[in-house]
């Protein structure tokens, strides 16, 4: 199978390395691009970048690589990205996997679906520390994701990049292509700051009878529970 793994806020393609290795050892093709303005592409970050930029990143990758039967995995913020990408590459996608991720609603922005407390938190932080549009990634980010292992924290911290709240201000356009796509949700059950953010999307997936899975870990299972995550990806695809 062809797996395209899309990272969330403040991360980059680097975060998928353990999962990549495991999937490739099973004979699968794996792509883990870094979205514009994050990871090793952080130098490209400007206020004009929105989720649509990242949707184009993923759509273009799938088209240029000529991929078919794609299992498209989106972590956290990237739920918006994989859903939006479906609009242009629906015929090439086998399955959408929302890994503790936002599930967008047609015509709504990321801010409109996540709830007022989080919008207020992130907007105030951007106003105070990030020129009105940036949230800084630091040790507190690791805390909010439930990353506790000190060796993992030491590896991750210098790789984290700031997150633009403008990513969450563009409406996501969806159609029947998204409605008809095969969709799965993987929920991370450890109680972290992100648990309250993501639980409503898990509940939505269950209410709409999507296949759902639970991993007992924090918000970054690709790093904290890669083997368990890979087993779920393979069993559900």
Automatic annotation (TrEMBL):
- Classification via InterPro entries: AB_hydrolase_1, AB_hydrolase_fold, Sec-Metab_Biosynth_Hydrolase
Q: Does the entry feature the keyword Hydrolase, yes or no? A: yes
- Which Gene Ontology molecular-function terms are recorded? trans-permethrin hydrolase activity
Q: Could you say which EC number(s) this protein's record lists?
A: 3.1.1.88
What is the protein name for this chain? Pyrethroid hydrolase
Q: Which UniProt keywords apply?
A: Hydrolase
Residue ranges annotated for the AB hydrolase-1 domain, each copy included: 3-231
Per the UniProt record, the source organism is Gimesia aquarii
Membrane spanning residue stretches:
none
Q: Please name the Gene3D superfamilies in this protein's record.
A: alpha/beta hydrolase
Tell me the gene name. Answer: pytH
Q: Which PANTHER family match?
A: AB HYDROLASE-1 DOMAIN-CONTAINING PROTEIN-RELATED (PTHR37017), ESTERASE_LIPASE_THIOESTERASE DOMAIN-CONTAINING PROTEIN (PTHR37017:SF11)
Enzyme class per UniProt: hydrolase
Record has Hydrolase as a keyword: yes
């Amino acid at each position: 199978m062809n797996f395209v793994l899309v990272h969330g806020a403040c991360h980059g393609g680097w975060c998928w390395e353990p999962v990549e290795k495991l999937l490739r050892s099973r004979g699968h093709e794996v792509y883990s691009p870094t979205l514009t303005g994050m990871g090793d592409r952080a130098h490209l970050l400007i206020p004009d970048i929105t989720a649509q930029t990242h949707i184009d990143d993923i759509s273009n990758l799938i088209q240029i690589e000529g991929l078919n039967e794609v299992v498209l995995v989106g972590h956290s913020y990237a739920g918006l990205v994989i859903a939006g990408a479906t609009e242009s590459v629906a015929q090439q996608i086998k399955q959408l996997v929302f890994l503790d991720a936002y599930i967008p609603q047609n015509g709504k922005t990321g801010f409109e679906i996540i709830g007022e407390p989080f919008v207020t938190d992130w907007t105030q932080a951007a106003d105070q520390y990030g020129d009105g549009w940036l949230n800084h990634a630091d040790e507190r980010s690791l805390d909010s994701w439930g990353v506790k292992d000190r060796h993992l924290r030491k590896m991750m911290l210098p790789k984290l990049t700031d997150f633009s709240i403008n990513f969450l201000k563009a409406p996501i356009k969806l159609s029947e292509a998204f409605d008809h796509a095969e969709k799965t949700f993987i929920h991370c059950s450890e109680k972290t700051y992100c648990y309250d953010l993501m639980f409503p999307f898990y509940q939505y997936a269950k209410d709409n009878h999507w296949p759902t899975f639970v991993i007992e870990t924090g918000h970054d299972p690709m790093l904290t529970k890669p083997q368990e995550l890979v087993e779920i990806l393979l069993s559900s695809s």
